[in-house]
Amino acid sequence: MADSTRYVEELRAIGQMLTGRNIVDFELKHVGSGYFIQDLHEHTASFSSRIQNWFHGAPYGTRAESLTISPAEIERLSAEGRARRNKAGQLTQFRELSNVLRTVGAYLDSKEVELLELQKRPISITLQYRDKSGGQETEDRPVTSFYKFFLELYERRGQTQEPRRGN
């Protein structure tokens, strides 16, 4: 595990990208220095799309999307996210995927572990990670179990950030 890995930023950026693609339930695997993401949500196509698929023999109403994200792509997404932020100290919504993943990333960073896999479902998150001694751990938790940690992070950020000028 590289000491420079900061899951808080990487997972936040990935969350913003997934939100833009309307992906909310997914499996994320840490591969090399990047990530492989598989959309787990079954998407229902429009009526006209279903008819076209039926005529062409395509699968009925599903779209499975998978993505591979490189470190360079994560850095680009992170920079775009920083540029879009509007007001320092403003309370963000925990339910936004980028904030849930940022919180999970900060949790992983605080434990000083290497993320192996993350599975996000509607009400739960499963984490698989490797600790410093090389042991593998799995945690299956409700998404809401990270809320208190989210609030603690918000408080700490508010205490360390200077107000931005010109906003």
Number of domains: 1
Q: What is the helix/strand order?
A: HEEHEHHEEEH
Indicate the overall shape.
Answer: globular
Helix/strand class: alpha+beta
How many H/I helices?
A: 5
Give the strand content: 15-25%
CA radius of gyration: 18 Å
What is the percent of helical residues? Answer: 40-55%
Strand count, sense and closure of the main sheet?
Answer: 6 strands, antiparallel
How many beta-strand runs? 6
Can you characterise this structure?
With 167 residues, the chain is α+β, with helices and mostly antiparallel strands. It has one domain. The protein is 40% helix and 22% strand. The chain has helices at residues 7-20, 47-56, 71-84, 97-111, 147-160, and strands at residues 26-31, 34-39, 66-69, 114-120, 124-130, 136-142. The relative contact order is 0.18. Residues 162-167 have low confidence and may be disordered.
Short description:
The chain is an alpha+beta fold and 167 residues long. It is built from five helices and six strands, in the order αββαβααβββα. It is 40% helix and 22% strand.
